[in-house]
Amino acid sequence: MPSNSLRPIRERKGLTIAQLAGKTSISIRTLQSYEAGERAISPDDLRKLSRVLYASPAEILQAWEPPRSPPSSRPAAESRAPTPPPAAPPAREAGSRRPAGARPGPPRSAVARPARSPREPAPPRPPGPATAGQLEQIRNLGRRLGLDEADLVDRLGSPLELLDRAAARAAITSLRKEMEESGRWQPRIAEGPDQEGAYLARLRDHQVPIAVQLINGERYQGQIVDFTPYVIRIRDEQTGAEISLRKLAIAYYLTRGPVDDAR
Amino acid sequence: MTLGDLLVHLRARAGGVFYSDVAEAKGIPVLRIVRAERTTSVPDLSDAELARLADYFGVPIEELQQAKRQTRAEVTAYLGGQEKAHAPARLRLRGAGVVSGPVVWRDRHAVALRQPGGAVLVVYRTSIERWG
Q: Taking CA atoms, which of A101, A128, A234, B71 is between 20 and 30 Å from B8?
């Protein structure tokens, strides 16, 4: 039966169904029926799974044919490299109880939404009086420019309440321009959605060798095996062992060669 | 380095203690610590609270006070401005010297800088000490 990719993704993360159930608070039975393709994954559960597995909803929902061979020869399990040696990897020192930083999972926008019919262009608004929001914006901009209500009336040539929508829009534009030119205001620059997840996935999939510089001065080289919002696992070039490096302990990581599609 | 990033780092260095551990030990409401770590502007922790946090983590209070003056929004504005101007960003990192390069991408936690020869260097914000 064509199914989703929940099981291979879970196995790649080295989680059992029970562990995944614990992390997502989805019941084991439900997870089993999701993996068997007996039930469609609910949007709520998809969001939880996406966050815990650090995989996009699209990846999870991707069709996948379970192998017919017995479970002992799962391809995902076979290709797993030796697990890290018991000697604690140095970066763990930076907090083994729990990830300390509040790193959010994939951005919300990545969550699957029901397909929406293409939106029709909004009909042009009929002319009318300025909205309350516009007036508030004008007053706020005025305040930040040191203009009181009387100054604004003076400048706009009419009481604010009598402005129509187009005039209000023009006033906002010109006040904002003045604000920018005065140098007292900078447009807010957004921190932006998660980019690193996609970038790390590309480095992992293309097996790009990287060097990781830790804050404490240590340096590791190898290929990315896997990663979560908190940890990057690399296979050490020299020993072949897998090492988990906590992002908090990392100053930077550098690809050894050029990367074309770094975005 | 911003206070939020510094607190995250100090909690990690203290063995990954929870917000609640710090809050309980020092009598600061948990939410105030959470907010201080996540805010993009100036965290509203008082000097008295900073002193208690400095005591908890065993660092000089000046380090926290200095971090409080640097906001996440400033780092973001700097990186965003350099990105827009296609100018190289210059960052001093804790324990790793100075790095620079044009911004390839940036998000809440990290920024990628193009290096001579085409390699890409990804810096975590928690390690940025100074910028510009």
A: A234
CB contact under 8 A, B126 and A248: yes
DSSP code of A39?
S
Minimum distance, in Å, between the CA of residue A53 and any CA atom of chain B:
19
CB pairs under 8 A between A and B: 134
A15 to chain B, closest Cα gap in Å: 23
Tokens 């770590």 found at: B37
Contact B1, B94 (CB under 8 A): yes
Written as one letter, the residue type at B36 is: A
How far is residue A262's CA from residue B35's CA, in Å, rounded to a whole number?
A: 32
Q: How many helices (H) and strands (E) does chain A have?
A: 10, 5
User: In whole angstroms, what is the distance from residue A32 CA to residue A16 CA?
Assistant: 11
List the single residue in A102, A195, A246 with the smallest CB-CB distance to B106.
A195
How far apart, in whole angstroms, are the C-alpha atoms of residue A39 and residue B87? 51
What is the per-residue pLDDT across A4-37, written as a single tens digit (0 to 9) for each? 889 989 988 888 899 899 888 899 999 999 998 8
Angle at which helices A165-182 and A132-144 pack, to 10 degrees? 20
Residues of chain A with pLDDT under 70: 1-2, 66-126, 183-189, 262-263
DSSP-assigned letters across all residues of A80-124: PPPPPPSSPPGGGGG-SSS--S----S-GGGS--PPPPPPPPPPP
Q: Is the ipTM of this complex over 0.95?
A: no
* A chain contacts of residue B11, beta-carbon cutoff 8 Å: 95, 100
Residue A116 has a CB neighbour count (10 Å cut-off) of 6
Burial of B75 (0-12, 13-18, 19+ CB in 10 A): buried
> Rounded to an integer, what distance in angstroms lies between the CA atom of residue A196 and that of residue B122?
9
What are A141's two structure tokens?
Answer: 């901009």
At A13 the three-state DSSP class reads coil
Enter the pTM of the model. Answer: 0.52
Of A97, A102, A103, the CB nearest to B15: A97
